[in-house]
Design a protein that fits this description.
Elements (H helix, E strand, L loop, with lengths): L1 H19 L1 H11 L4 E8 L10 E4 L2 E4 L5 E6 L7 E7 L6 E6 L5 E3 L22 H4 L4 E3 L2 H5 L6 H4 L7 E4 L9 E4 L9 H4 L2 E4 L2 E3 L1 H5 L6 E7 L2 H4 L10 E6 L5 E14 L11 H11 L5 H4 L2 H6 L2 H12 L7 H15 L6 H5 L3 E13 L3 E13 L6 E14 L3 E16 L9 H5 L27 E17 L5 E20 L4 H6 L7 E24 L3 E24 L22 E22 L3 E12 L8 E12 H4 L9 E15 L12 E3 L4 E2 L2 E2 L2 E3 L10 E14 L3 E20 L8 E24 L3 E18 L5 E2 L9 E2 L6 E4 L1 E5 L6 E4 L5 E3 L10 E5 L4 E11 L2 E11 L2 E3 L41 H9 L6 E3 L2 E12 L2 H6 L6 E9 L3 E2 L19 E9 L1
Parallel strand pairs: 1-7, 11-14
Antiparallel strand pairs: 1-4, 2-3, 2-5, 5-6, 8-13, 9-10, 11-12, 13-14, 15-16, 15-50, 16-17, 17-18, 18-19, 19-20, 20-21, 21-22, 22-23, 23-24, 24-25, 25-26, 26-27, 27-32, 28-31, 29-30, 32-33, 33-34, 34-35, 35-43, 36-37, 38-42, 39-40, 40-41, 43-44, 44-47, 45-46, 47-48, 47-49, 48-50
Main location: membrane
Membrane topology: Multi-pass membrane protein
GO molecular function: siderophore uptake transmembrane transporter activity
């Protein structure tokens, strides 16, 4: 690709320039060694940890610290006396002037710039709810943006997997598909994102999850994960499921700095979720199944020797389209030749259909400004190819921020925009991915006849459908942070977020399904959708802070906020487009119910008004207290239930300051305790039609023997109440020698009045209604630790690890012991059980005499899988959602070389093996999972078999597919290398000899999701299905600062 060639050319030229120029450079140095001057140093935080990205200036020369906090700056001439004045600046830090003295190591500690209004670095704060008093007793975790930026992934949401303990991200399959994101598990009986997904806040404005997916990590300064009631209380009922609080990068004072980041590489096939049969085993399975539509039996001596010539002729005609009048010997000879020919073919459809692809991402940013006005501008283009032909995603993003400082404070303007397009060959009922598991190993792309798809060729299976989705995003925020007088802070932010989603799905008129099922004037289908999400948010906050007697720090804050959301959806479906694959080509003359044009649309709005009060107190940096109260009114609820509250109390102790003998110690440098308690109402599972009557238009509806133009969208429940989340959190933090840290959090969160769609009698005109049905508990432990083992001049080594444990339990179902949906015999929820407990049959294995699969019921009696399953037959098996998640990783550096690695692991969950590709007599013409022959009972005396007699009956296989059992379920643990980065920083002396155009440069080899290890054999351990899983990505990355 052009970008890849450009990258390789640039890298080659840099290397050759360095190598070829060494002798002249060496000579030049010999003549100039009396004037050349090199400055080196180390910049650290107050706790001794290195600071990355600090700008170091000496006159017009400048450089930036690396991830180890070190810098090297080469000047053209030696200053007088070997002394040089330096200016060090970084966002959020006090700018510091120091003097470097030749021969003396330089170590600089940069202090936080909190409270310094006249600080040169602009500290505008659009996220006005990010108050210091909130973090003192709440659980606020921060994502390591340095590690996140090193993951070559086009989807920011997936890149967060393993970033913070308690934040879980589950891949849902296809490239471009929105993942599942949860903070400390699910809070409602209502499953899905609407009721359990966190709130997303960018620079003070609320954004949609779709907008969050498309953000550029290089434009983000920090992401905070707010977990408990104290941390989320300032956002009120919107934040019941936690908050992801994102702050964009801002400008800095000084000359314009240009940064170019470019990376290109490949995406790999990834882990093969299961092994399918090769030719010999597949032909043997077909022979054992004795199905004449499959060649393994059709051409076998078993069939030819036992069937009559008439049956042979009929079978060959129905399967092959020929009706030979051969003798039995001729049939045997023909069958032998066919089997020999098929055995020469060994097609690996995984390698043929799942393909490597390309990845590229290019980013250009400019930042700078004066002491009064600073700016940041950034543009990004990224593209990632999918694992299937016809699947890819490309994205453009643009970010601009402008910060103005006056005597009273700061005014900031932020603009963000984005465009994304995803192409997919997958329809709702078919994906080319299925062909990996269905096409036989003795078939090829050029086969004139497919036994797996009778009557079709390979070309009849591809190009049958295409879909694209397009997203256009625009957002803006205007904020002010003013200090009218000492101790008083006035903050305000206005934000708009607009997302337009468009989609188009086309089944061409030439598709096999259209040609074989439709008349020429009916062929070809198109479906077009348009969805807009508009979010408007406003927040005004006043905070007064006062320090009394140098020890008593008191603050009080009040705010009012308003949030408005509007979503519009329009879709049109039509048939008969022929070769005109656009909406205007729809045949409007088609009038049958399944072919006539179909139109649908909706418009949903909601508004929320809130008032809040928060107060904090700190005593001599030893004791922290916090309290917050927020009342919110929502248009989703009836007038008498409109107002709901969120409140929180929290406290913290800094024992290293409080206990005299620990104060000022060099070993135990930090020891803190935190506790919080709070309640938050949640509207997450409530829609505009849940509690008040909402009517919708429709083309036709049969109701009470009449057609009606409008009807209720859903049966509303005027008794509906918001869920109430009560939470308790305890935390401990320990720091040793400013280098080793341990954080422990224990939490319990109870959801009362939990919501679920309950079944109701059909006589109501509806089948379900949202209702408050019970209470749910989520509790767990989160641990994180880090250790800086080496921090010398040349060698650096730090380790990190995290572990989160979360379990859920149904506490009460308001008078019931269990809830069942439809005709299910296993409960959706049961008192005392986990939120998503797996129920199944206690399998005993296959009876070697009869071939029946047997199980043990709750009374201990042996039963056959062929019976009708009742509730007493089922037993509990385990947790579907893994309760344990965690990470571990390291950062190792030697001089200019640095290695970062991060592993992500999950364990404790169970998922049943999918029976989709375990074949029976009805679908043995398609390929099957490897090993099925040796694990299937075929004849009397077959022992230790997993699968029953293929002719055991429909009920047996229906039960086998519908109910998990103890022999066909497995732990879904997995270990993934989620990030690997090997980075080299080009020396300042090399950059100096190359003309000092580039001030800072790194070259890196980076990878994400490079491998996954798991004992689970039933597909993807994340989903429990045979989806393709996450793509491994490997790239070469070049970063240049000018």
């Amino acid at each position: 690709m052009p970008q890849t060639k450009l990258l390789l050319t640039l890298l080659t030229s840099l290397t050759l320039s360095a190598e070829l120029a060494l002798p002249p450079l060496a000579a030049a140095q010999t003549t100039q060694q009396t004037t050349a001057f090199t400055i080196t140093g180390l910049v650290v935080e107050r706790d001794g940890s290195p600071l990355y990205g600090v700008i170091v200036r000496a006159g017009n020369a400048k450089t930036m610290t690396n991830s180890g906090g070190r810098f090297t700056l080469t000047l053209a001439s030696r200053p007088e006396g070997g002394r040089q004045a330096l200016t060090l600046s970084a966002v959020g830090k006090k700018t510091q002037q120091v003097t470097f003295v030749e021969g003396h190591p330089l170590r600089v500690v940069l202090e936080d710039a909190v409270g310094e209004i006249k600080e040169v670095v602009v500290r505008a704060r659009p996220n006005i709810n990010a108050l210091d008093l909130r973090a003192r007793s709440g659980v606020v975790a921060q994502v390591d943006m340095k590690l996140l930026a090193q993951k070559p992934m086009i989807d920011l949401s997936l890149a967060l997997q393993g970033a913070v303990p308690g934040l879980t991200v589950v891949n849902r399959g296809e490239l471009g598909m929105k993942p599942e994101i949860r903070i400390r598990g699910n809070n409602s009986f209502t499953k899905g994102d609407a009721a359990n997904e966190p709130l997303y806040v960018l620079d003070g404005k609320i954004i949609s999850p779709q907008a969050f997916m498309t953000l550029n990590p290089l434009d983000i300064r920090e992401i905070k994960v707010l977990k408990d009631a104290v941390a989320t209380a300032l956002y009120g009922v919107k934040a019941a499921n936690g908050v992801l609080e994102i702050s964009s990068r801002r400008g800095v004072s000084g000359p314009m700095s240009i940064s170019l980041s470019t990376q290109a590489g490949v995406t790999l096939r990834g882990r093969q979720t299961t092994t399918m049969m090769d030719t010999d085993e597949k032909l043997e399975l077909e022979r054992r199944m004795q199905v004449t539509t499959a060649p393994g039996y059709l051409f076998s001596p078993d069939f030819i020797s036992s069937a009559t010539l008439s049956d042979l002729r009929q079978s060959y005609q129905s399967t092959l389209g020929i009706a030979p009048t051969w003798t039995r010997e001729e049939y045997l000879a023909y069958g032998s030749r066919q089997l020999d020919s098929l055995r020469q073919i060994h097609t690996n459809w995984w390698h043929d259909l799942i393909r490597p692809n390309s990845y590229q991402s290019h980013n250009l940013s400019l930042r700078g400004g004066s002491q009064d006005v600073t700016y940041y501008v950034s543009g990004n283009f990224s593209r990632q190819g999918g694992q299937l032909e016809g699947n890819d995603t490309k994205r453009f993003t643009l970010t601009n921020s402008l910060d103005w400082q006056s005597r009273l404070g700061f005014v900031s303007l932020g603009l963000t925009g984005g465009y994304a397009k995803t192409n997919s060959p997958n329809s709702s009922d078919f994906s080319p991915e299925q062909l990996v598991y269905e096409l036989n190993p003795y078939e090829t792309k050029s086969s004139q006849q497919l036994f797996s798809y009778p009557g079709r060729k390979y070309s009849d299976l591809t190009g049958q459908f295409r879909r694209w989705t397009k997203e256009i995003r625009f957002g803006t925020s205007l904020s002010a942070n003013l200090r009218p007088f000492e101790g008083m802070q006035l903050d305000a932010v206005l934000g708009l977020d607009y997302v337009l989603n468009e989609s188009e799905q086309v089944t061409p008129a030439t598709a096999y399904s259209e040609v074989t099922r439709r008349r020429p004037i009916e062929r070809g289908m198109i479906s077009v959708g348009k969805n807009t999400d508009f979010n408007y948010s406003a927040n005004l906050r006043a905070t007064y802070q006062r320090l009394f007697a140098e020890k008593h720090d008191f603050s009080i804050s009040a705010n009012t906020d308003y949030y408005y959301s509007e979503g519009r959806l329009l879709s049109v479906t039509g048939h008969g487009i022929g070769l005109q694959e656009y909406l205007a080509g729809v045949n409007k003359g088609l009038t049958s119910a399944d072919l006539r044009p179909d139109f649908s649309g909706s418009n949903a709005t909601s508004a929320q008004l809130g008032f809040g009060l928060a107060t904090g107190y700190t005593y001599d940096k030893k004791l922290d207290l916090f309290a917050a109260y927020k009342a919110d009114a929502s248009s989703l609820l009836p007038r008498d239930k409109r107002w709901n509250t969120a409140w929180a109390l929290g406290g913290g102790l800094h024992l290293e300051e409080l206990i005299p003998f620990l104060r000022g110690g060099s070993l135990l440098t930090g020891l803190g305790l935190k506790a919080s308690w709070g309640l938050t109402a949640s509207l997450g599972g409530i829609t505009s039609a849940s509690a008040v009557p909402i009517f919708s238009y429709q083309q036709s509806s049969f109701y009470a023997d009449q057609y009606r133009l409008i009807r209720l969208s859903t049966l509303y429940n005027d008794r509906l109440k918001p869920e109430q989340l009560k939470s308790v959190d305890l935390g401990l933090s320990v720091q040793l020698a400013h280098a080793h840290t341990l954080d422990v959090n224990l939490y319990r969160r109870d959801t009362e009045d939990a919501l679920i769609m309950t079944d109701i009698p059909a006589s109501n005109g509806f089948l379900s209604m949202l209702d408050n049905v019970g209470s749910l508990r989520n509790e767990g432990v989160e641990l994180s630790a880090s250790s800086r083992l080496l921090s010398g001049e040349d060698w650096r080594l730090s380790l990190r690890a995290a572990l989160a444990y979360n379990r859920s339990k149904v506490l009460d179902l308001y008078g019931k012991t269990a809830i069942y949906s439809g005709d299910n015999v296993y409960p959706d929820y049961e008192v005392g059980r986990s939120y998503d407990y797996v129920y199944g049959l206690d399998a005993l294995g296959v009876n070697p005499l009869s071939g029946e699969l047997m199980f043990r019921d709750r009374q201990g009696a042996e039963q056959s899988f062929g019976k009708t399953i009742v509730r007493d037959d089922l037993v509990g098996i385990g947790y579907r959602t893994p309760p344990y998640t965690g990470t571990f990783g390291l950062t190792f550096g030697y001089k200019a070389l640095e290695l970062d690695a991060q592993f992500y692991y999950v364990f404790g969950g169970f998922k049943a093996y999918s029976m989709t590709y375990v074949r029976g007599v009805s679908d043995v013409n398609k390929n099957a999972i490897a090993g099925q022959v040796s694990r299937t009972w075929f004849a009397l005396g077959d022992e230790d078999r997993l699968y029953p007699n293929p002719r055991a009956g429909t009920q047996t296989f229906n039960n086998l597919s519908h109910y998990p059992n103890t022999r066909m379920i497995s732990r879904s643990d997995y270990l993934r290398l989620s990030m690997l980065s090997l980075r080299y920083r080009l020396s300042s002396s090399l950059l100096h000899h190359l003309g000092d155009v580039v001030k800072y440069a790194t070259i890196a080899l980076q990878g994400s999701n490079l491998f996954t290890l798991t004992p689970y054999k039933g597909g993807s351990p994340e989903s429990g299905t045979y989806d393709l899983g996450v793509q491994p990505v490997l790239t070469l990355h070049l970063n240049l600062n000018f």
